[in-house]
Fold this protein.
Amino acid sequence: MDRMKISIVQMDIAEGNPELNREKASELIKKAASDKPDIILLPEMWTTAYELSRLEQLCDIQGKPTLDMIRSLSLDYGINIIAGSFADKGDDGGIRNTSYVVDKKGNVAAKYEKIHLFKLMDEHTCLKAGSKHCIFELDGIRCGLIICYDLRFPELVRSLVLQGIKVLFVPAEWPAARLEHWNTLLKARAIENQIFVAAANRAGKDKGDTFAGGSAVVDPWGEVLKEADYNEQIISVELELSKIEEVRKRMDVLSDRVPDVYRI
């Protein structure tokens, strides 16, 4: 497969109302599916937003019920869905900012728990951090997944690239106050690793914070292929995966690395 069509769902989120958010997400996924993408990507913490004080009552438990909804939609439409992320309680009782990847047959292809918790939004007070990176294949294409604040840690993304990913997916809930950081970091991760980066941010306001929107797809040369504004919307773009090899032939950054010098 040398092409991959991605649809990104940029949605506003009703704080602390999982049922309403699942209903909205379901309708937006159905709408996105009408464009016949290979993959649909959702934003971060879309079932609850950052209603951290009530996560114990609002969170999913081992993926349920949100994962069941996503798996059903994947099967109904024959589309891979990267289910953004949501608060999910594991079998150890810990709640984590968790993303599930569901393939077009309704199978869970991957699960990722956010590694870097964002102290400015008090994530560390209510959530446990993950400890494993996430690599998976969809339709034969090797992909990686990080969540929001993880984008600021180039070491994490480089580790995924060295294991062969071609597309990096980034669900986020990134505020408008740091929109320039968002735009710059998406391009930087694409340019320095010579991969595609597809990112879904949320729209709207929450507790006085305004969120940036700006969901985007960036190619391996750092060019923005498609970008949303700040409103709730769906954007779609088809990736030509051969662009990765074209860029690396022009400038073979990965082969020019000197890892021994970088060790601290």
Remarks:
- The longest strand covers residues 3-10.
- The chain has a mean pLDDT of 96.
- The first helix runs from residue 18 to 33.
